[in-house]
């Protein structure tokens, strides 16, 4: 899955404008709760979980399609959109579990009702567990409960993408997951997303080995590669990091992160020149998020230090200092030059 390239500007307190190759968007709100509108007409509501990198995205208005069919726009014929289809809702004769789950997830969202619904109705249990974890347990810091729910859900093999309830009532629902510093991915409701959520919670609780075991079971792709590279690095499995990042070019934010991890792996293996090549490629695209650029500069500076190139190291550290004087650990790195 690709990662979007975008520029974001603050235009008023709590309001940001985002420019992408596909148009312009404006978002407003506070940390953890924002409404976003795009020039295509698409409107979304995002409710985040501060400190976790996890958020839930709901499409309020789908906007207009970019696909064209029939006569060209210059032919003079006019074609109008019928507008967004009415939102589906359980009918009069829908089963009770469906009505209760719809009420708790869509009509009047209430994480507090989900444990009861999951306990009383077997058909609702998987989705109730997923949203209890993401809307209830994690936001309230109950990581053991979140771990219990997500581990059970992953072990059952449940795939929300095949769930008729999801297809009917939650077709535009997705999660935005911070899978590494400076890298976010908007994920659909599917089994891989459950796995990544589970791995994230396992990492938060310090069980890195279990997180690796889960991610290694997921479909290979950019997102899983980013997650695995970070986890392998935490375990000091540098050979695996190098193998995972072979033949990589800086095509998106995820690739930038992977190149940084590749450079760190080479440095830790005693190959500083190869490490600097990886960092050079990571820094080649100057429009990457500041978190990624700063991380690459810090890691390259540390590599210069291993080579005894103190002036070059200080130059990289001071580049970060000029943009973010509060970068974690930066002051400690600079203090080395005062000794």
Automatic annotation (TrEMBL):
Q: Which domain of life is it from?
A: Bacteria
InterPro entries registered for this protein in UniProt: DUF4236, TPR-like_helical_dom_sf, TPR_rpt
List, alphabetically, the SUPFAM superfamilies matched. Answer: TPR-like
A Pfam short name = DUF4236
Where are stretches of biased composition, namely Low complexity? 70-89
- DUF4236 domain residues are 3-55
Q: Where is this region: Disordered?
A: 37-89
**Protein name, please?**
DUF4236 domain-containing protein
